[in-house]
Amino acid sequence: MKKTNIFAALIFAASFLFLTNSASAFSSQDAGTITGGIIGGVVGSQVFHGDAKIAGVLGGALIGGFIGGSIGKSMARNDRRTATRAATKNKVGQKTTWKHDNKEYTVTPTKEFTNDKGEDCKEAITTVTVDGKTDTATTIVCKRGDKWYVQK
């Protein structure tokens, strides 16, 4: 089989993965899906030969895209964990800032209080800056027993 056909199959697989993800901005999951798809397609092209090569490329791209997307999604989950940890562990006024995927996050607890159920709670301001645009949200986390949960 010609190398041009393999290259065309890789381009097709990458395009398919790109079009099935959000086109406005790449999240960690999007980037993982596309990168995994391309790597999986290349691996598939090396493992399979003859008539099965195209199927190997496409199968590798789909499997790689799925695995890469899962890895990327867990990275976004880590950002949520970091934000929750900062809201629950930081003292009032103590900022935690980190960068991931061209985004800058800042979480700052602003007050502590007891809710109407008698649970210890914290209010925190979270800012996310992407491409110079900043969004702000207020989150309330409360402690029930020994576990924190997001109330708002």
Topology, element by element:
Layout: H1 3-19, H2 28-47, H3 53-89, E1 96-100, E2 103-114, E3 120-130, E4 133-144, E5 147-150
Antiparallel strand pairs: 1-2, 2-3, 3-4, 4-5
Helix pairs in contact: 1-2, 1-3, 2-3
Fold and architecture overview:
With 152 residues, this protein is α+β, with helices and mostly antiparallel strands. It folds into 2 domains: 3-77, no CATH class; 80-150, S-adenosyl-L-methionine-dependent methyltransferases (Single Sheet). Helices cover 49% and strands 29% of the residues. It has helices spanning 3-19, 28-47, 53-89, and strands at residues 96-100, 103-114, 120-130, 133-144, 147-150. A hairpin with a 2-residue loop joins strand 4 (133-144) and strand 5 (147-150). Residues 20-24 have low confidence and may be disordered.
Annotation keywords:
single chain, 152 residues, alpha+beta, S-adenosyl-L-methionine-dependent methyltransferases
Low-confidence stretches: 20-24
Give the helix tally: 3
Fraction of helical residues = 40-55%
Q: N-to-C terminal Cα separation, in Å?
A: 57 Å
Element order: H for helix, E for strand: HHHEEEEE
Oligomeric assembly: single chain
Portion in strands = 25-35%
Give the biggest sheet.
Answer: 5 strands, antiparallel
- Strand order of the main beta sheet, please? 1-2-3-4-5
Average predicted confidence as pLDDT: 75
| Overall strand count | 5
Structural class of the helix and strand makeup? alpha+beta
Rg over CA atoms = 22 Å
**Total domain units:** 2
**Overall 3D form:** elongated
